[in-house]
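Lecture notes, structural biology module. Today: joint structure prediction for complexes of two components.
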Amino acid sequence: MINVALPKGRLGEKVYKMFANSGYECPSILENSRKLIFENEERGVSFFWVKPSDVSIYVERGAADIGVCGKDILLEYEPNVYEMLDLNMGKCRMAVAGKKGFHDSNVATLRVATKFANIAKKYYASKCRDIDIIKLNGSIELAPILDLSDVIVDIVETGTTLKENDLEVVETIVPISARLIVNKSSFKFKTEEIENIAKALKAQVEAND
Amino acid sequence: MNFEQCLKNEEKILFNLRYLYTKYGYLPFKMSKFEEYDFYARNKEFLVSDSVITFTDTHGKLLALKPDVTLSIIKNATEEKGAKNKVYYNENVYRVSGSTREYKEIMQAGLECIGDLDLYDMYEVVSLSAKSLALISKDYVLEISHMGILSALLDTVTTNSEFKSLVVDCVKKKSEHELRECCEKFGASKEATEMLTDLIKLYGTPSDVCDKLKKMKVSPEFDLATEELCQLCQLLESTEEYKSIRLDFSIVSDMNYYNGIVLAGYINGVCECVLFGGRYDKLVSKMGKNGGGVGFAIYTDLLASLNKDEKEYDVDVLLTYKPSTPVTKVQKTVEKIVAQGKTVSVQASIPKSLRYKELKEMED
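The predicted structure, tokenised, for the full assembly:
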């Protein structure tokens, strides 16, 4: 049995469809019920929904053999897992944004508000830029407007929220998409099953391209 | 209840490992809890985690609670032509533990072979690592890699250290898609890209992987490393453990320290690697010694989750007595119960949290 951790929300539903189209369906998952785990014994898979940022924890700790999560989570938490496939969905980018016309004159410590402290630290360290991280858990866009920070580091999908708040992307750090991650120990003992799932998903990714 | 039933699973494993290593002529190595911090600071990259617990001793010297045993073993190794220092250890080390990212006291068992090494020594250590895993569980996998293979391949592809380090990251994650992106970004040729992605996909039994490796035309250094790895696998073929051995090049260690075979052991049911080791001639030479070194460590703290045989009771008999009960009567009753091979807890009243199989209440 392969345990699959799926991220709750639209991305997770899309990913489940990919599994189903690859022959790993589990129709009960689409029913409106209070069940937490959905199993298809015949196909040897069991799915469960978890908070997107928790997927990597479930996989790293072996509660799930495989899972799907965004590259942003992998960069931020650096879990010790295999990252076997880019599912090419949930595409967006990790970017630095600031008030329209913002210019970093590099004379003072840059105040950076973000949910992704690790990504921000590493990015600015690579540029030898001295920064002050302000860790927020939501409404990041408010920070530069209220002068809590000079810039923000956050996920940008369409840029509409930024535009509506007079903010703009200053630079892109890295493109983001959903990845198939695998627990290292599970891979050793369920190699064939995991490789078959990865192959089936890869075929779909290539067909969608 | 017998002596063995009294031991925890990890304790039984430690005794079995000690017996195994002693049979092969490895001597026990005992070290102090502290070393000078400077000793670890000089070899920081070799340590699993660079977080070391430090404190100042009574003379103002900065000491560290030992995060590793190998470094101390190398420091104490004697040099003698043709001879090897063969030692094993069970030591507590203090470092940030895998997924918890918190400081932990970890009981680590392992062995090291340092000196004038040859193929037999490599075989002995690798075979003992497989035997160690087999003692822990029948359902295990020992993965072997050779640092020389990846390093020779990287040397033929590029001289750019940033590119090399990104490739190593992709190989560790078995991330073919990122490797391709990375090759494209650094302008690697199609042929080089295919060779690197082939290496990521190479995983399997030694015979399958060795056949494929021998067909790859990379460089004389690549062939040399392949030859060494395949020779070792051939020697292992006759052992019972061979069926659990796989070759996998995603096990990569710091190239500044490790130079040959690298080992990683997994037990079904444990989510992390429980055994890690390899050949570290570069570290031996950095510490000013001649010859080479090879060894492995087993993280016994990870084994606590295995074979958890939760007992239904804390004791077989709960024996209660009254203030008026003569002590000699209690004494005799206890000895009688113990002589029957049962465990007994003597109490004046029934403790709320104690789980017992049988209650014996003593009268006056």
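Point to remember: The mean pLDDT of chain A is 93.
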